[in-house]
Specification:
191 residues; three-stranded antiparallel sheet
Length: 191
């Protein structure tokens, strides 16, 4: 599949270099990282935030979590919250979970956590569950005239992924040992 026409038109109009990525249907940044075999820090997750003034899109690397207290301070807002999914449908005309990080496309301001600057290329949702866009993080920030601030905290996902990998390696080693034993036994019976 191709990225949604509205997203493609927006990116082409901005004349920014990007790569379209088609993939299986995914609903989370974690699933996207697994599907594309990328590290979580290469995936950007975006979240619609309601402030007392307006809506904004907050963007953080997928291995981080948004700290609403820090974001509230950065926005100089009296209150911030995550709006109900119906807001995405009624106000922004997008499916819940399919909103892009491209604020200009939705006529909202974009706030990017400074930790995203550590990533050279970033993968962003393109407005569907089957397509994403890869571009340089600095190009995304410049294109969106995003405001930079420190509003994330470690989410612990990387630690969980490392633990899962260690468990998988142990299981593979155990299976290999079992296969060797079975081969030895079967060789002994053939004689």
């Amino acid at each position: 599949m191709a990225i949604p026409k509205i997203t493609k038109k927006y990116l082409d109009k901005k004349m920014v270099k990007y790569e379209e990525l088609a993939h299986k249907t995914v609903y989370t940044a974690y699933d996207l990282a697994q599907t594309l075999r990328k590290e979580l820090n290469q995936i950007a997750k975006s979240l619609l935030i309601a402030t007392d003034k307006a809506y904004v899109i907050a963007v953080v690397p997928a291995h981080m979590r948004i700290d609403l207290g820090k974001l509230k301070k950065a926005l100089k807002a009296k209150k911030v919250s995550i709006p109900k999914e119906q807001v995405m449908v009624k106000v922004f005309k997008v499916k819940p979970g399919a909103m892009t990080a491209f604020g200009g496309l939705h006529q909202v301001e974009v706030w990017v956590d400074k930790s995203l600057l550590k990533t050279k290329d970033v993968i962003l949702g393109a407005g569907s569950f089957t397509d994403s866009v890869r571009m340089k993080a600095k190009d995304f920030i410049k294109m969106e005239q995003a405001k930079l601030a420190d509003f994330s905290q470690k989410a612990g996902y990387m630690l969980q992924v490392k633990k899962l990998k260690k468990k998988a390696v142990k299981k593979v080693k155990k299976v290999k040992k079992t296969v060797k034993k079975v081969k030895k036994i079967s060789k002994g019976k053939k004689k």
